[in-house]
């Protein structure tokens, strides 16, 4: 149990700045009370999530959604609040110029603009002390014949190589894949295999990030996790849950068993060891539920799945597996999943001087009432000041 608690204490879950802003679907963005008006206030909200869970000490930024004049000052502000800047997420998907793609666009001018933005994100990493750049490309085509699929891979490789060469000591980039959307016929980085192949070619500072909402229904995500971790190419996760496509619902809400299976492969592959650099990030939007409690709940969901994964009796599992005991092995696995780990986590929090129930403690803190009174005119998640 001591080992399990130590592993849980060492786990860090990163929350995304965009989870704190107003969000919605393409049909409607709902406005909530007390929503941050600028990146400084987003960090203040993220600091609350850390204060009540004790395991969310970093916040991911999305550029230019979190554009500020002085990034070193923003990082200082984060430190003053007891948190740090996590991954810098690039955004080459919201300019009119990117209609036909960003780094794979047939136009050299647009490709230059997109790559320059990625390089600017590395400058922001330098200024904030962030060690991770996250790259997601909305690039692809809607119609057969629209562009040369193979040439687009060449353009992608060229841009990635330029960004890779710009990375400093201790910096890396994570390449994100997504099955479809906004491109519908062919996406330029549609799957882990494509991301992996580019990363292998580039070298150790390029790794793959698994967004749990970016696969076809029924995909065995834990297999992908096991494979990438074995190859040293699992850079981290964008956690969220989905019922249909890229729903960005709270992680562990739709399918807690899948989250457990993923976390088991992380534990099995040594991915909880901070040395491996596996980043546990959330990539979510809280469209209809309150945002800070939504993040607290999500962090707790990842922590619960991790605790269950750590509880798997690996020795008993290995014995059953080596004996070909199909039902015995499965029972060991299910025993851990069916264990109620909430008392263990409450105990762990109390040992760290935290309230045993973060949701209740936050609700009682009065923070929401304070921001609802103070902040008027909060921003949409994607277009923060
Ligand atoms: C794309 O769907 C994605 O998962 C990428 O990580 C983006 O950066 C993020 O969503 C936020 O829109
Ligand atoms: Mn993502
Ligand atoms: Mn997504």
From TrEMBL:
Xylose isomerase-like TIM barrel domain boundaries: 47-242
SUPFAM superfamilies membership: Xylose isomerase-like
EC number: 5.3.1.14
GO molecular function: L-rhamnose isomerase activity
Taxonomic superkingdom: Bacteria
Keyword vocabulary terms for this entry: Isomerase, Manganese, Metal-binding
Class of enzymatic activity (EC top level): isomerase
Annotated PANTHER family: L-RHAMNOSE ISOMERASE
Protein name: L-rhamnose isomerase
Source taxonomy: Bacteria, Bacillati, Actinomycetota, Actinomycetes, Streptosporangiales
């Amino acid at each position: 149990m001591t080992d399990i608690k130590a592993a849980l204490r060492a786990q860090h879950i990163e929350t995304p700045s965009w989870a704190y802003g107003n969000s919605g679907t393409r049909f409607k963005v709902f406005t909530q009370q007390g929503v941050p008006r600028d990146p400084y206030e987003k960090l203040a909200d993220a600091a609350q999530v850390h204060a009540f869970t004790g395991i969310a000490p970093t916040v991911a930024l999305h550029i230019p959604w979190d554009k500020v004049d002085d990034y070193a000052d923003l990082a200082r502000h984060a430190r003053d609040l007891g948190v740090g800047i996590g991954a810098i997420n690039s955004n080459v998907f919201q300019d009119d110029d990117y209609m036909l793609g960003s780094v794979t666009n047939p136009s050299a001018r647009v490709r230059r603009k997109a790559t320059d933005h990625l390089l600017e994100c590395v400058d922001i990493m330098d200024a904030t002390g962030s060690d991770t750049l996250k790259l997601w490309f909305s690039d692809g085509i809607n119609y057969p014949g629209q562009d040369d699929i193979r040439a687009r891979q060449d353009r992608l490789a060229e841009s990635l190589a330029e960004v890779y060469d710009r990375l400093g000591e201790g910096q890396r980039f994570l390449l994100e894949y997504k099955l479809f959307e906004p491109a519908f016929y062919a996406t330029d980085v549609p799957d882990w295999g494509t991301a992996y192949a580019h990363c292998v070619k580039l070298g150790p500072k390029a790794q793959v990030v698994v967004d749990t909402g970016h696969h076809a229904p029924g995909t065995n995500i834990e297999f992908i996790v096991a494979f990438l971790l074995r190859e040293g190419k699992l850079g981290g996760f964008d956690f969220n849950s989905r019922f249909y496509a890229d729903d960005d619902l709270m992680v562990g809400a739709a399918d807690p068993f899948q989250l457990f299976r993923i976390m088991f492969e992380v534990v099995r592959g040594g991915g909880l060891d901070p040395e491996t650099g596996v980043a546990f990030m959330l990539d979510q939007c809280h469209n209809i539920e309150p945002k800070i409690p939504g993040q607290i709940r999500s962090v707790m969901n990842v922590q619960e799945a991790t605790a269950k994964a750590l509880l798997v009796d690996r020795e008993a599992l290995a014995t059953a597996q080596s004996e070909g005991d199909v039902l015995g092995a499965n029972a060991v696995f299910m025993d851990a999943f069916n264990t109620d780990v909430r008392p263990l986590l409450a105990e762990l929090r109390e040992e760290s001087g935290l309230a045993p129930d973060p949701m209740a403690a936050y609700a009682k803190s009065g923070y929401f009432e304070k921001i609802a009174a103070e902040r008027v005119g909060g921003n949409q998640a994607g277009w923060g000041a």
